[in-house]
Amino acid sequence: MSLTLLKGDSAFQARSLFRSLLRQSAHFAAYNFREYARRRTRDAFRAHAAEADERKVQELMQRGLKELAVMKRQTVVSQFYQLDRLVVEGGAAGRQSGGRGDIVRQTTE
What we know:
Radius of gyration: 18 Å
Number of strands: 0
Shape: elongated
Oligomer: single chain
């Protein structure tokens, strides 16, 4: 969605939708789903960055709002099936460390 070609409120709505999608993607319990949602959001906005047709921009905004609603439902469902954190995530269950760039699984138990 062309933020430079959009006028006033439309540009604000596009940025707001983008931020909402990124924020919601952070609520996924699984690392792979989180990263997929972030990547898909960024790629979709980049792919349509030069869109100038106002009708097409509105269609894309509606599709984005539908995707946001789906993502909200899916994040709630994903909270029911939490697994141990992956090594790449770091945090309480494990973190990356090692002297020469190798990865060593460490637990805080």
